[in-house]
Design brief:
Elements (H helix, E strand, L loop, with lengths): L1 E3 L13 H8 L5 E3 L1 H6 L2 H4 L4 E4 L13 H5 L1 H4 L7 E4 L10 H18 L7 E5 L11 E2 L11 E4 L16 E3 L11 H4 L8 E5 L5 E6 L7 E3 L3 E10 L13 E2 L13 E2 L15
Parallel strand pairs: 1-2, 1-3, 3-5, 4-5
Antiparallel strand pairs: 4-12, 6-7, 7-9, 8-10, 10-12, 11-12, 13-14
Helix pairs in contact: 1-6
C-alpha cells in the first residue's frame, strides 16, 4: 500500500499513523512517499500497489496543502486507480475524540483501507478530505478529486457566508447503504465526534454512490427512503467486494448535483438506519 506522507500523522509513541496501523492489521506492507517521491512515480508504478492512501493529518491545517503533490499529478495516478475507491469528508481528529468515537474512527479507517485493497489485480484508493474544506463556500471545487473526473464540489461545515451566529458543524451521521467500507459502524458510532462531518458533497461523479450523509445540514442535498434527509459526506465507487447498496429508486430531486454528464441530486431508498433491527428484504 502507498501512503502520501504529508497526509498522515504518526503516533508519537509508536511512530505509526492510524493508516499504517490499519494496513498492518490487514497484512499489508506500507510504503510512505514524500512529495518528491510521489511526484516522481509513473502510472505503471502507481498501478503496482493494492491501494493508495491519502489519509488524515489530524486536521492540522485548513487548506489542502498536504495533498498538493497528489493534486498536481491526478492525470498520472488517477487512471491507475481501477479498483474500489472510498472518499470521506471528515477527519478522525483523535486527539479530542472520546474513546468510543475514537474506536469508530479507527474502524472506519480500517474498513476503508480493506475495501480499497480488496480488488485482486486492481489498485484502489482511500481518500480523506480531512478538514481541508471546513470553511469552504458552497460548490467549492476539489482539484484532488479530478483524478476521478472534475465533477466534485463541496461545502464546508462552517461556510464563511453563513449568516447564522450559532452555526454548528454537522454531528449527526446516517448510513444510507450497506457497504463493506462501513462494516461494524452505525449511525450512532459515526455521530457526535465533535464535528463528525467537515465537508459535504454538492456534486460528484456519477460513478460514485452515497454511503453516508449528514442529517443536520440545513441545506440537505439527498433524501433517503426511511425517510431522512442529509448531505453526502462518504462516497464509494466499486462493489466487487460484495457491497449491497440499497438503491431501489432514483428520482431527480432538483438541479443541485448537476454534473457535466447530467448527474443530479437523487432520491434514494435505503434500509432503515443500521442502528435499528431490520428485516427488510434486499
Amino acid at each position: 500500500m502507498l501512503i502520501l506522507g504529508p497526509t498522515v500523522s504518526p503516533d508519537p509513541t509508536t511512530g505509526l499513523s492510524p493508516e499504517e496501523d490499519a494496513a498492518a492489521s490487514l497484512g499489508l506492507s506500507v510504503e510512505i512517499a514524500d512529495n518528491a517521491a510521489w511526484s516522481a512515480k509513473t502510472a505503471a508504478e502507481f498501478s503496482a500497489y493494492k491501494a493508495i492512501v491519502l489519509g488524515d493529518p489530524t486536521c492540522s491545517v485548513f487548506d489542502d496543502s498536504p495533498v498538493s503533490a497528489a493534486a498536481n499529478n491526478t492525470s498520472v495516478w488517477g487512471p491507475a486507480v481501477s479498483g474500489n475507491v472510498i472518499i470521506v469528508g471528515t477527519d478522525r481528529h483523535s486527539r479530542r475524540l472520546r474513546p468510543d468515537a475514537k474506536s469508530a474512527a479507527t474502524q472506519l479507517i480500517t474498513d476503508a483501507i480493506s475495501f480499497a485493497a480488496s480488488n485482486t489485480g486492481k489498485t484502489g484508493a482511500y481518500i480523506s478530505l480531512s478538514c481541508y474544506y471546513t470553511f469552504a463556500e458552497a460548490r467549492t471545487p476539489v482539484p484532488l478529486l479530478n483524478a476521478f473526473g472534475n465533477q466534485f464540489l463541496v461545502s464546508g461545515s462552517f461556510p464563511p457566508d453563513d449568516p447564522r451566529a450559532d452555526v454548528q458543524c454537522f454531528n449527526q451521521a446516517h448510513i444510507v447503504a450497506e457497504h463493506p467500507a462501513l462494516t461494524g459502524l452505525t449511525d450512532a458510532r459515526l455521530s457526535n465526534w465533535d464535528c463528525s462531518v467537515m465537508e459535504a458533497f454538492d456534486q460528484f461523479s456519477p460513478g460514485f454512490l452515497v454511503l453516508a450523509v449528514a442529517l443536520d445540514d440545513p441545506n440537505s442535498l439527498l433524501i433517503a427512503g426511511d425517510p431522512t434527509s442529509g448531505s453526502p459526506f462518504i462516497l464509494g465507487r466499486g462493489f466487487d467486494a460484495g457491497a449491497t447498496p440499497e438503491l431501489d429508486s432514483l428520482l431527480l430531486f432538483g438541479a443541485g448535483l448537476m454534473g457535466l454528464g447530467g448527474y443530479a441530486r437523487l432520491r434514494w431508498r435505503s434500509r432503515r438506519p443500521r442502528d435499528q433491527d431490520s428485516t427488510a428484504a434486499k
